[in-house]
């Protein structure tokens, strides 16, 4: 076994590899860019080497600097994590030439599977089910449109060297095929240095299900069940789980055996993932093979008990697999939620800045519950514009799916993040949806369930009543405590009236020492709601039982009550004495300014293209500008018919959130 390895990556995956290496007694070397000098993976490793500037092209993508760092520190092997150089065959060959072991598959397997055109041909030869499509090179837009018509819409336009949703578009007609081809080609060139594009049939209402394989250098290969990865946004996975709520044992076995056949066909050795799309009749088609550790690998580890990083290290060191196929058992259910620095209220656009608060839920492991948080950030750290916006991967495991979902809801409620926009409210909202709980998933889930984007969550009546009762209870008790400590007023809390306003809704309570009595003013009905909590004034996380319901919520004190975040809802909960609540209906409401005549930059980014000029008439849905952020090109479109009166930003301009790009006037 190796005595020292270098991790050629950053963020949570670098931290993840370091954890297993420490358990195995292997020393670790981190590499870092200018932007990552204070990063968590740097402090966790035994040694750290600076390798260049903040852009990945000046640091993490420079194989020669990685090799130099290995020689400087005496690292015998390199774990690439995912992204960056993890699927770069030339880097593997350079390591081999330098006498350094690559902790991953051989270069020929990476090269064969990394090219989506070649990989589909190999898959077909290995009798793996494949999607109909055109696997040749496509020269220009006209040819792309012609091929799309021959295949039949809808089609998927993909970068051959793509990954992570970059260089990928769905087209339903000729116009979308033209635009999709141009955008995919441009993104592929900037992200991968390879602008080759191919087109295949898009399977409607598909599920995205992948098989984890594990192979050694001695010809042994097994599969470790599947992961359901259908909940995606812009072709980027958001929530994953294992096993899939859709597959039966027969289909799982067929997919697993075909995945093993493909791995053996390319001489694979290490952990790898074979991705499939699966239709409603359980027909499955090969999508691609990822020749690296997947982001979502923790859910497989949780249901199998197998540490995939450990297995990669052992395989790279030449050991045989110690696990046979008939020894693989799937136990319980695991769910992973990817926490991104993306603002769901702004169509999930990237959000950068400092984490003024970062307090994840405590990691926990027992016979019937596991809470795991894989992260690469810390309280006070910074989310940079240079890299992927991932904050953490929050995972839960339980004996069954319903319990795993419930545990995830509680864990998300307890995850405190401030300073940037993040997608925790959205993740919480999905966990509460009946469709998700029933397992009716497709890759179109987010588009179908949130057709107008994410605009927050409206709690049901029962949940809202519980929050109101809790606010009445803690509001009065914190006030009473302040008076008691000041020793200026002797208050009795035996029967104190409080009114709670959540939006336009009003709830009336009598606050008791360990309960509240909810009073329905219209029906002259009352209900006792016992409250149990050890919350104290100043704390931002509250765990309580209200009646029969367990509540985990984030609470921030405000002048007239609390800001409460619970199950994806973000509420201004006001607590008044009843006579004050009576007067609230007369208070004026301040309206936000009208910004409909401006195109605002929705994220920090760079203007890479302007599609219109001053004086142009634009139609609803027409592209206006393209802004690049975190290596993704975002097309900004007109919301209505108008005339461009002023262009306020030039191509190349670096813009902050809400900077004006252009102004409009009505026709």
- The coarse overall form would be globular
Mean pLDDT: 92
Q: Tally the helices.
A: 17
The percentage of residues in β strands lies in 25-35%
> End-to-end span in angstroms?
72 Å
Radius of gyration: 27 Å
Fraction of residues in helix: 25-40%
- Strand numbers in spatial order across the main sheet: 14-13-10-11-12-15-23-21-20
| Spans where pLDDT lies below 50 across 5 or more residues | 483-491
Q: Tell me the structural class.
A: alpha+beta
Most strands sheet: 9 strands, antiparallel
- The number of strands is 40
What characteristics describe this protein?
single chain, 667 residues, alpha+beta, nine-stranded antiparallel β-sheet, 17 helices, 27% helix, 34% strand, magnesium, EC 6.4.1.3, manganese
Describe this protein's structure.
With 667 residues, the chain is of the alpha+beta class. It contains 17 helices and 40 strands. The strands form 9 sheets. The chain has a 9-stranded antiparallel sheet with strand order 14-13-10-11-12-15-23-21-20, sandwiched between helices. An 8-stranded antiparallel β-barrel has the order 25-26-27-28-29-30-31-32. Strands 3-2-1-4-5 form a 5-stranded parallel sheet. It is globular and about 80 Å long. 49% of the residues are buried. It comes from Maritalea mediterranea. Residues 586-665 form the Lipoyl-binding domain. This is propionyl-CoA carboxylase. Its cofactor is biotin.
């Amino acid at each position: 076994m190796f005595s020292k390895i270098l991790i050629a990556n950053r963020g949570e995956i670098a931290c993840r590899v370091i954890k297993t290496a420490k358990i195995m007694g292997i020393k670790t070397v981190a590499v870092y860019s200018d932007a990552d000098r204070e990063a968590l993976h740097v402090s966790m490793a035994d040694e750290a080497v600076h390798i260049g500037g903040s852009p990945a092209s000046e640091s993490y993508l420079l194989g020669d600097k990685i090799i130099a760092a290995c020689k400087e520190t005496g690292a015998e092997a390199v774990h690439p994590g995912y992204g960056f150089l993890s699927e770069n065959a030339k880097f593997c060959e350079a390591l081999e030439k330098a006498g350094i072991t690559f902790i991953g598959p051989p270069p020929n397997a990476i090269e064969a599977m990394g090219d989506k055109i070649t990989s589909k041909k190999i898959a077909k030869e290995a009798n793996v089910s494949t999607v109909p499509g055109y696997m040749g090179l496509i020269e220009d837009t006209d040819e792309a449109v012609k091929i799309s018509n021959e295949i039949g819409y809808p089609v998927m336009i993909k970068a051959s060297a793509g990954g992570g949703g970059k260089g990928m578009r769905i087209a339903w007609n000729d116009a979308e095929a033209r635009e999709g081809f141009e955008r995919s080609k441009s993104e592929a060139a900037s992200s991968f240095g390879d602008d080759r594009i191919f087109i295949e049939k898009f399977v409607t209402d598909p599920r995205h299900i992948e098989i984890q394989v594990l192979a050694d250098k001695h010809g042994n290969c097994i599969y470790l069940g599947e992961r359901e990865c259908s909940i995606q946004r812009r072709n980027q996975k958001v929530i994953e789980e294992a096993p899939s709520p859709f597959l039966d044992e027969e289909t799982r076995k067929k997919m697993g055996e075909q995945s093993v056949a493909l791995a053996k066909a390319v001489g694979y050795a290490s952990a790898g993932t074979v991705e499939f799309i699966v239709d409603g009749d359980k027909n499955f088609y090969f999508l691609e093979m990822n020749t690296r550790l997947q982001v979502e690998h923790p859910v497989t580890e949780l249901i199998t008990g197998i540490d995939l990083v450990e297995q990669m290290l052992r395989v790279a060191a030449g050991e045989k697999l110690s696990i046979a196929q008939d020894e693989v058992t799937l136990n319980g259910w695991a769910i992973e939620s990817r926490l991104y620095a993306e603002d769901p209220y702004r169509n999930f656009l990237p959000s950068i800045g400092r984490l003024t608060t970062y307090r994840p839920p405590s990691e926990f492991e027992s016979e019937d519950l596991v809470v795991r948080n894989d992260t690469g950030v810390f309280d006070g750290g910074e989310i940079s514009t240079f890299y992927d916006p991932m904050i953490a991967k929050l995972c839960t495991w339980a004996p069954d799916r319903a319990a795993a979902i419930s545990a995830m809801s509680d864990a998300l409620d307890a995850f405190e993040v401030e300073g940037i926009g993040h997608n925790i409210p959205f993740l919480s909202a999905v966990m509460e949806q009946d469709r998700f709980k029933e397992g009716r998933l497709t890759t179109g889930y987010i588009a179908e369930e949130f057709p107008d984007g994410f605009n927050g969550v409206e709690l049901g009546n029962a949940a809202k009543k519980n929050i109101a009762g809790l606010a009445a209870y803690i509001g009065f008790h914190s006030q009473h405590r302040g008076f008691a400590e000041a020793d200026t007023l002797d208050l009795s809390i035996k029967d104190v009236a409080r009114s709670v306003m959540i939006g336009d809704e009003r709830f009336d309570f009598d606050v008791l020492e360990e309960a509240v009595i909810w009073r329905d003013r219209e029906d002259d009905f009352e209900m006792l709601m016992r409250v149990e909590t050890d919350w104290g004034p100043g704390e931002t996380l509250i765990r309580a039982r209200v009646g029969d319901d367990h509540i985990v919520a984030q609470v921030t004190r405000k002048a007239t009550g609390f800001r409460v975040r619970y199950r994806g809802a973000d509420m201004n909960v006001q607590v008044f004495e009843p006579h004050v609540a009576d007067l609230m209906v007369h208070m004026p409401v301040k309206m936000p300014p009208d910004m409909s005549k401006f195109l605002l930059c929705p994220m920090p980014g760079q203007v890479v293209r302007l599609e219109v000029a001053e004086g142009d008439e634009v139609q609803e849905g027409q592209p206006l500008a393209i802004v690049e952020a975190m290596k993704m090109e975002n097309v900004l479109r007109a919301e209505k018919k108008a005339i461009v009166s002023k262009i306020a930003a030039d191509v190349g301009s670096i813009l902050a959130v809400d900077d004006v790009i252009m102004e409009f006037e009505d026709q």
